[in-house]
Known about the structure:
This protein is mainly β.
Amino acid sequence: MTKTIEFKGRCLCGAVAFEGAAPDEPVSSCHCKQCRQWGSGPFDAYSVPLANLKFTSGEDAIKFYESSEFARRGFCSKCGSSLFWHADRHPDWKDRIAIAVGTLEQPTGLTAGPHIFCAAKADYHEIKDSRPQYAGED
Ligand SMILES: [Zn+2]
Ligand SMILES: [Zn+2]
């Protein structure tokens, strides 16, 4: 049985706070250009069912930027912290949301998963661990 992760997170200023419990998922590190521009990359994310994410404050402080045809990126409008990647217009993925895992309180109980979009990684970024590497999303 998959273990359940109880998580609690917030943005840098604390205006946006959230929590929840969701199945364990390895943390993916995205090396794509968009993630790099958005948060100086790579973007480390923990993906959860959207219904398992509850806001305890500041849901109205979140702003979304539509970064592609099917996805949007959520950030705090007060401090600018990157918070979520959500494929809200993708039929298969819209019910899940990727949380910027750096927003979560330690210890998270999570483990490191694959490096994705390695084909687009920055030239200065050397991947030296033994985690799986994918050129694209898998
Ligand atoms: Zn904030
Ligand atoms: Zn990315």
